[in-house]
Amino acid sequence: MRKFANQFLALFIGLFLLLSIGVVIYTNQLVRTATTTSIIEDVENRAKNIGSLLDEWILQHTSSVMTAVEDFPSMSFLLDEKDTIAFFDEKGTAVHPDKQDDNVLKSNDMEDVLAGERIGTSGIQIDDSGRRQYHVAVSLFNGRGDFIGIFRLTHRLDELDQLENQLTQSVFIFSFVSIVLASFIALHLTNRISRPLKQIETVINHISEGDYSEYYKGIDYPEIMALGQTVNKLADSLEEKNRTILQSNERLSALLDRLIVGVVLLDSEQRIEMMNPAVYQILGIDENLLGRSFLEMSKSYGLVQIIQQTYQKKKNRNEEIYIYYPNERILDVNTMVVPDAKGNQVIVLLYDITEIRRLEKVRTDFVANASHELRTPVTALKGFSEVLLDGALDDPDRLRQFLEIIYKESKRLEILVNDILELSRVEQKQVPMKREWISLNETVERCFKIIKPQAAAKGLKLRLLSNNADPIRFIGDQSRLEQILNNLIYNAVNYTDKGGKISVLLEETEDEIVFHVADTGIGIPEESIERLFERFYRVDKGRSRNSGGTGLGLSIVRYLVQNMGGTISVKSTLGLGSTFTVHLPKVVEEL
Question: What are the extents of the domains in the chain?
Fold first, then answer.
């Protein structure tokens, strides 16, 4: 802005000075011309007047130029102090003064008169001393009208020199005054123009730094004010667009941060430009890798190969790979090439499908196990039915034995089908949960009452313990709670040998209800605990089948607990027993 102000100031002063000097020179020329014309006219008029007086005097007194020269000084009052006179006879010979420059006769004024003109002028000439002068020659005649000589008036134009000196001084003075005046005017105009422009520049600088709070408020010139208002509108528009961009970036950042799919953006040099938190979790990374090479930090050879092939072939790829650090996982890897001005960027999507593959395996195992479990009773039913049809109907003892087996297997088949259907409904949350007041103590007592005959047959002791003196009450689904307790207590009875103990410990905290079902049974191997809640999984397959179990009870229990908003866990020591612990949230609002 300072440079612009200086340039504007210099340009304005230059133009103003040039215009002023031009006006002064033009004015001076007019003055010089007018003055010169006035002086010349005055000299010519004087010469004419003197010539007329001389003609009259010659007419009255003499016919000789010499005589006129001798008596002429009496008329010197007609001359100016810068005037000089000369007389010539009819042939151009100098009479007074008697010596003249030989070039006099060649002067325009003398040539005109000698050629017969009444008056001749020479124009402005410069003498040997460098002075300017003007000559006027006048013809003289006697009484008979004969040409008898020439009167020549020479006037020095000293006043022109003085005038030019004065004009030159006036030019310098006027130029100086013009420069001073132009400087003040230009400085004032520059300030008036540069001040709003400087304010606009300040506003634009704030905008470039992302600060949109600064506005132009000047009202100096309509044009500059319009420019300032345009800048203000630009600031508002940029602020709105910047706000929109920031909101979009925040939404995108929030989306990427919460995305379970790992997203990595690699530049043309395979360096990491962006990476969301899911990548750190999937690949077990605990340091900031932005700007570093993804291939150097990756511990998966398969992942490195996919990315390198994507860069080499410039084609999108989709593969499923196994990684073994930090844990064994199955990843669905998608790479996409994104061309840009600097080269090819690559987006890498990492989707952890370990759980999906595990569930697929569980589903496959479930179908296989269900088929196997169904095949046993169906085979028994079919086999004994064929035996009966082949002639066993006529043998009462065999008939009764086979019918009892058929009934037992059909009952087992019914239980298995019902458990499968129940598991399906519970797993898909198709079982509605009632909301009613439940006494946990009374519910356990009812379960004990149902299971007591089987426990007594094995000499098992059932105990109910509580950390609360009063009965524990909360809001929940009574029938589903009984289903959970029956399954857990039944398993405890089934896997506890004679003389053992089964205890149910009740606890109440501010936020939840907790109950523990503990036994002194055979315990669970450590490697089986993780799979304990899988469908059809049995720790002791023989014991479970003999007791009529389907292997679906604990799976149903887990889903029921989850549907009630709780959790279930198990601790076990082989040979010493197991403890199942259920945590259920305590509903505090009244029905």
Answer: 1-164, 212-257, 259-430, 432-585
The predicted model gives 228-238 an average pLDDT of 79
Distance CA 86, CA 95 (A): 8
The tens digit of pLDDT for each residue in 456-482 reads 999 999 999 988 878 888 888 888 888
Q: Report yes or no: 579 and 570 within 8 Å, Cβ to Cβ.
A: yes
Domains 1-164 and 259-430 share a fold: yes
Question: What is the longest distance spanned by two Cα atoms in the chain?
Answer: 205
Which is nearest to 228 in space by CA: 200, 207, 193, 189? 200
What amino acid occupies position 243?
R
How many CB atoms neighbour CB 42 within 10 A?
12
End-to-end CA distance of the chain: 77
- In eight-state DSSP terms, residue 278 is H
Q: Which amino acid makes up residue 527?
A: E
Q: What pLDDT, in 10s, does the model give residues 106-155?
A: 787 888 888 888 888 887 777 777 788 888 888 888 777 778 888 888 88
Q: Bridge partners of 329?
A: 323
* Residue 353 C-beta-side C-alpha neighbours within 13 Å: 15
d(CA 262, CA 94): 124
Q: Which CATH superfamily is domain 432-585 in?
A: Histidine kinase-like ATPase, C-terminal domain (3.30.565.10)
Write the DSSP string, 329-340: EEEEEEEEEEEE
Burial class (CB in 10 A: 0-12, 13-18, 19+), 108: middle
- The answer to whether the beta carbons of residues 566 and 584 sit under 8 Å apart is yes
Residue of 443, 505, 439, 444 whose CA lies nearest to 472: 439
How many C-beta atoms surround the C-beta of residue 142 within 10 A?
16
**Any residues with CB less than 8 A from the CB of 454 and at least 6 apart, and which?**
490, 493
The DSSP call for residue 469 is S
Looking at domain 259-430, its CATH class is alpha beta
pLDDT more than 90, % of the chain = 9
Q: Which two tokens stand for residue 208?
A: 């470039």
Contact in structure between 310 and 335 (CB atoms under 8 Å): yes
Nearest alpha-carbon partner for 274 in 338, 368, 200: 338
For the chain, give the percent of residues with pLDDT over 70: 78
CATH class name, domain 1-164: alpha beta
Q: What angle do CA 573, 574, 576 make, to 5 degrees?
A: 65
> How far apart are alpha carbons 564 and 570 in whole angstroms?
18
| DSSP conformation letters of 293-360 | BHHHH---HHHHHHHHHHHHHT--EEEEEEE-SSS-EEEEEEEEEEEETTEEEEEEEEEE-HHHHHHH
d(CA 148, CA 154): 20
- How many residues can be counted in the chain? 591
- DSSP, collapsed to helix, strand or coil, labels residue 474 as strand
Written as one string, the DSSP assignment of 13-60 is HHHHHHHHHHHHHHHHHHHHHHHHHHHHHHHHHHHHHHHHHHHHHHHH
CA distances to 284, 486, 497, 511, 576 from 501, rounded to whole Å, are: 45, 16, 9, 30, 11
Query: pLDDT tens-digit profile of 518-529?
Result: 999 888 888 888
Amino acid in position 487: N
pTM over 0.70: no
Tokens of 561: 């607990």
